[in-house]
Amino acid sequence: MYVVKQNKKFFTQDLLEQAVAEQAAAIEAENSGFDEGGGAAPVLSRKASDLLDGIFRILELMYSRDSVYRDDYRISVAQSQVRRSKTAAARGGWMGKGAAATTLVKTITLNLWCLNPAVCFDELKGQCRSIVLTSGTLSPLVTFASELDVPFPVRLEASHVIVPSQVWVGTLSHGPSGQLRLT
Q1: Is the bond into 153 cis (omega within 30 degrees of 0)?
Q2: Which domain holds residue 161?
Q3: Shared domain check, 111 and 52
Q4: Pairing of strands 5-6, 102-114
Q5: In a designed cystine with 85, which of 72, 100, 114, 156 is the match (CB 3.0 to 4.6 A)?
Q6: 101, 123: one domain
Q7: Other beta carbons less than 10 A from residue 72's beta carbon
Q8: Whole-angstrom distance, CA of residue 129 vs CA of residue 163
Q9: Are residues 137 and 101 in the same domain?
Q10: What is the C-alpha to C-alpha distance for residues 91 and 101, in angstroms, rounded to an integer?
């Protein structure tokens, strides 16, 4: 993807807006089911449309506000092998005794990770009048507010409600049956 700056506007942003408009047109055509000629309109499947919608949403967040959040994303590619059982039809229609036939399938997964919680919270802080955050694990609130990039003028930070004498920490070496099975 080439990003060239011209008149303080990115060509990538223009391409993104064009792609979003084309996707919206494809979704509208899918919902209508037919084009003006009377035949079936070529449309994307729902799964492909949802995938593109997610990608465009991430690109929109990355390049909004003069690309301030662009560097907060990372791409991860993971390769794994998974055993999948073959269906009876794939085995020739016969169901045999014993273990089900399996095949080893290689899966490659592409992940786009947002490493900054302020990216998603940015939209909320401009649209909401009040935000109430409650949790037992948000303490200290100073660091939490800095991660969200939002000043909280009113804060209530209570002390722990559990007395130290009520906490027990230990390890289990075996269960009631003599074995320790972890799932």
Answers
A1: no
A2: 117-183
A3: no
A4: unpaired
A5: 100
A6: no
A7: 15
A8: 36
A9: no
A10: 8
Q: Are 16 and 56 within one domain?
A: yes
- Mark out the alpha helices in 33-157 (DSSP H runs): 46-62, 118-127, 141-148
Nearest residue to 155 via CA among 137, 172, 170, 142: 142
- The pLDDT-based confidence of 111 (bands split at 50, 70, 90) is confident
Confidence check: pLDDT of 100 > 80:
no
CA distance 16 to 62: 11
Alpha carbon distance 5, 35 (integer Å): 38
**What does the pLDDT look like over 38-57, one tens digit per residue?**
556 667 788 888 888 888 88
Same domain for 52 and 85, yes or no, is no
Are 80 and 109 in contact, with CB atoms under 8 Å apart? Answer: yes
Place of tokens 């990538």: 12
DSSP state of 159: P
**Using the 8-state DSSP alphabet, how is residue 42 labeled?**
P
Q: How many beta carbons lie within 10 A of that of residue 149, not counting itself?
A: 13
